[in-house]
Amino acid sequence: MTDRLHIVGGGMAGSEAAWQAAEMGVDVVIHEMRPKIGTFAHQTGNLAEMVCSNSFRSDDDEQNAVGLLHWEMRAAGGLIMAAADAHRLPAGGALAVDRDPFAETVTARLREHPHISVTEEEVTGLPQEGHWIFATGPLTSPTLGEAIRRETGADSLAFFDAIAPIVYADTIDMSRAWLQSRYDKGDTEEERTAYINCPMDKDQYEAFIDALLAAEKTEFHEGETATYFDGCLPIEVMAERGRETLRHGPMKPVGLTNPHQPEVKPHAVVQLRRDNALGTLYNIVGFQTKMKYGAQTSVFRMIPGLEEAGFARLGGIHRNTFINSPTLLDEQMRLRSRPNIRFAGQITGVEGYVESAAMGLLAGRLAAAEMQGRSLPRVPQDSAMGALIHHITGGADARTFQPMNVNFGLFRPVDGLKGGRRGRKDRYKAYTDRAKEAWSAWLANS
Prior knowledge:
FAD/NAD(P)-binding domain, alpha+beta, 6-stranded antiparallel beta sheet, Elongation Factor Tu (Ef-tu), domain 3, globular, 6-stranded mixed beta sheet, 446 residues
């Protein structure tokens, strides 16, 4: 028990934690309850299955914080980024992946590793002995969730994650839709045409908003409150915040020109992003929803070009829990009341595939070093990794702690640079240059 690192959960964080620790020479056991015990959102028993979007978001490591996080994970030999790069799909400046081959690659690499074994079982409690990382993610089983609540002495916070629908490409009417990335972004023609765009005029948009607001929605169980993470809001919740909200969010028309009517500026545009390498599946970007299935098909077929759309998967909503990490975890991601246990991934209060995997990377390295009798230098706060771990282990206000994507607002200011929008490009480049130097030095000394 004590000479192995036990990782509970085989999602993004657990998979990356296992890889990093095993690459450092530590024997690892991944405890994954799927497929023996399924969840609402998962479709397979693969490790690192992507259940919501297939996007890792921006890959720009000079002007975007998540792109910087990509860079840091690649520099650390991250498995998740290697698999994502191997199964990359055209997505303009974003990193989108073919989700099934991606998960199959991660699963195969982990199962083939000489220091890793995988057991399909549910862990229902917090062990007193041994070295453990809990990376059970947004769908922690109720039994384990209750054990965590008993140990921490606090109610787990909860919010709701929504999933966007996926459409069969051959059911999209391309006489009304067209291929184009926003602002023609991308280095190749394939990247510049990575999205399918469906235009709406003002009347179509207004009718669509009316239908969204009137559609039958999923009801919450007694005692549940509809608290959402702002980065994953259902479209109907956005519409409730104002009729123009969607037109300035996922349906914004800027940077797009309809070749069927180049002289007409669309009032709104719905974008679909390729979801697999074959190009047979596209997901509707930003269209997470809690509408019931029947309502989804009728409402989404109001979108020009999707009148005859066939759906490979409809949207859905599920409960997501996370711990109050600023009060419960130390700077090494250990549970203060039981330092033999670390937490990683979304359950710590980071949001997004990349952020979850990044916290898994750190937890795996920190646990492995501790087991080897070594003490790693403190993760530099000026790196993207350091900014995130600092936020969840003490930088955030515990009273208002909510899930957080990586962003430059978590970074310490760079002296001598002006604020505001005009200075943003130079400021972001300074952040990323400083972060790369700090992260490279940490890796070299670890």
